[in-house]
Structure formats: C-alpha cells, structure tokens
Amino acid sequence: MSRACVIEPGSTIGILGGGQLGRMTAMAAARLGYRCAILAPDEDCIAAAVSDSWIRADYGDRAALARFADAVDVVTIEFENVPADALDFLAGRVPTRPASAILEVTQDRLAEKRFIERVGVPVAPFRPVETAGDLDRAREELGDNGILKTRRLGYDGKGQVRIGGMASDAAVAAIGGSPAILEAFMPFAHELSVITARNPQGDVASFPPVLNIHRDQILRQTIAPGGFAPEIADRAVELAESIARGLELEGLIAVEMFLMDNGDLAVNELAPRPHNSGHWTIDACQTSQFEQLVRAICGLKPGGTAPLHRAVMDNLIGEDLLQWPQLLDESDAFLHIYGKASIRAGRKMGHVTRLSPLGT
After folding, report:
1. Range of the domain at 176
2. Which of 53, 145, 324, 329 has a Cα-to-Cα distance from 100 of 20 to 30 A?
3. Quick one: average pLDDT of 122-145?
C-alpha cells in the first residue's frame, strides 16, 4: 500500500450532506478511528448526531466551506446533487473524493449516458430533448413506449414520466419543461446493482450483484447475493469496474443495471456514493459499503466483499417504521433506524436486514 495517498486513522473526514448515508458513513469511520465533520443545511441533520462536528450552512456558502476545509483532511459526499462548484472550491484546499468532474457527469443524465457509451458499456438508447418538437423526433426514432427524464435532479422516480400515448407537449409540460432525455423502454426481466470502490492507488473492489425490487419507483427490497448465473454476475461486475476506472473514481459508485430475458445487461444509472441497495453489507459482509468508502477515500486497501450470509434488506418507508417492536423480536433481523425527526409518507425511515445461511 502506497503511503503517499494514505490518510491515517485519527484524521478527520468531511462529509457533504447530513442524511442517513452520511450517518452510516460516520459510524463506519468511527469504528476505524476516524473523526467526521458534517457540512449540511438541514435542521434535522441525522448525520451530525453521530459525528464530531457540524457546520450548518448552504453548500454555496464559501466562508463556511473554507472553515470546513480547514477542519478536515479529506472530503466526500453522501448524495450526488452537491453542487460541483462546491467541490471545486474545496479541492483547492483539501483532497475531495470523488472529484467534481465525476459529479458533472452523474448530475446530468445526458452527460452520464454519453460517458457510459464512451467507455463501451451498454446503455438504453436515448435522445436529448429540449422541446416538444425534439420529443416528436425522438419518438419517431425510439418509439412511443419510452420514458422522458429530466437531465438533472431526478431520483426515486422523480423528474420522469412514461410517455405512452401522451402528446409531446403534455409530456414536456409534465416535467416542467426542463431539459431532458427520452430513454427507450427496456423490456427487462430484473433490476440489479453493483457497488464498486476504487482508491487513489487504483485498487478496485466490488460487492456481488444484488437483485432490487421497486414499488412506486422506490427501492423496497434488495436480495443479496442476487442469485444470478455466474457469467451474468461476472459481467455485471466487469461493467461496473469499467465505469469506475473510466471515471478515475476515488471513492464508491453504485451502478444500476437492467437484466434482459436473453441475459444482456444495460446500465441504467450511476450514483457516486453509498447506495440504498448496499445497506445489506453492514450485517452480511466482512466490510460494509460505508467502511469501503472510508477505506477508498483514505487510500487504504479495499476490504473483503464476499458475503458471509444471504441477506434480504427491506426499506422501512413512512409508517413501516411503526413495526419496530415486532422487528426487534425477530432473531435473524437487524434493525437500523435513522433517527429522523418525523415520519412522512414516502420517507426512508430505516431498514431491516434478515440473514440466512448462504445457499438457502
């Protein structure tokens, strides 16, 4: 391990963002002897509750960013919509992992799709859309069964509409007239994801592909390992690692994919941060995705990624959290409550991971 890139235990990790991903990253960092500082504007900053310090400020507040940079040894992110110029500002003062150039790719669906194509990884056919006329032409090429997605700020199904028989002007209006892409509908059999880490020395490690089940466009359940044929699992990891290397990633990335009936894979989306579909790793792997992020950004060797158990992770959405007394009584269930101040419909309040022996 090259020590030139190593940020040793006892150092302070700065995390931009104060949600559950930052919270679980801070908890993993503490186990390895790191301190964490949070910069986030949120009043209900659940990451701050388990961190050493918190600067409550907007991401565009340069004075706050400068104070933050002075207090930390490396900076990472817990959500991908941190303004890239905030990372640019910090990069002049402290290592930032991932780099702002990666956010410039992943924050723009058009840039992301073009990057994925450029590194030779399969992706659903797409066309840029600015106007209803653009959408008319895109529909002629890709068909009427596509999905119109805003180029920016969409997640958990937000910022997109299945066009079907909609008039093009109505479809464009439905996403607020924002710059968009039309993505051809992929008749997939399953949705899966691979989480890959890469450190500054170029070491790469991936968790096995997992099967993801969505309802109302929100992840509800992840099954790990995903039960895919070995050649499909190997190919999925190969695609994810090609993307990580192509981005020159320093950190963690989740690569969401579609699996077709014929065994083909196509990449759907990228998220350069810990991912909901990786929460099972906390209880079922030697190294969690959160520890793997800490290792990657601090220049440490990646930890082991082989599952020690079969895991089924269920998100606790909204009032699902009220099941906590029963969940605590389950002998093979591991309950994680995020500590958010209030329950709201559609809000991720926690998750539960149930373990069983591998092969069951």
Report:
1. 125-183
2. 53
3. 93
